[in-house]
Specification:
Oligomer: single chain
Mean pLDDT: 85
Strand order of the largest sheet: 1-5-4-6
Number of strands: 6
Radius of gyration: 16 Å
Largest sheet: 4 strands, mixed
Shape: globular
Length: 160
């Protein structure tokens, strides 16, 4: 289920919908994957949400656009591909997804998730993520995809 509040990003520029779609298509094809009409529909639906969206929300939106039922399992498979190719990020605690504005810039995201109002803030801090990767490596662990989420209360909910 989508949340009623938008995701706020700390890093500046965002792409227009057409530029985001073109960047996603080019990035996926550079990684040897095909940009199919259904993948495009799922990406367009994902990108149309201002807040984290579930596979069910996306399936519903794609089904309405396509005029036929698209199963959430189909959407999950496409979303998994998008996460693996940096076209989307997954907010694990919400089982929800966000489109990436810059698929060629691979970084570990930090999500601040408000338990009261649902606002999710996205921070890029390669220093923090790098320290987590280094700590894992120091223990003989090969980190592949750190998921960093901080649950708590946003400034609006705390009155700050």
């Amino acid at each position: 289920m989508a949340h009623d509040h938008p995701v706020h990003c700390e890093h500046g520029e965002h792409l227009t919908p057409d530029a985001r779609l073109s960047a996603a298509e080019a990035a996926l094809e550079r990684q040897g994957e095909q940009w199919t009409p259904l993948r495009q529909s799922v990406y367009e639906a994902l990108s149309s949400f201002e807040q984290p969206a579930s596979a069910y929300d996306i399936a519903e939106r794609v089904s309405a656009r396509e005029g036929r039922r698209i199963a959430p399992n189909t959407v999950y498979r496409i979303l998994d591909l998008f996460v693996a190719t940096n076209l989307a990020k997954r907010i694990e605690s919400r089982n929800a997804f966000l489109a990436c504005d810059h698929p060629d810039h691979v970084h570990d995201c930090i999500f601040l998730v408000c338990d009261r109002c649902g606002v999710t803030t996205h921070i890029d801090d390669d220093g923090i993520a790098g320290e987590i990767r280094s700590a894992a490596k120091a223990r003989g662990f090969k980190p592949e995809h750190p998921v960093i989420e901080v649950k708590g209360l946003c400034g609006t909910c705390t009155g700050e």
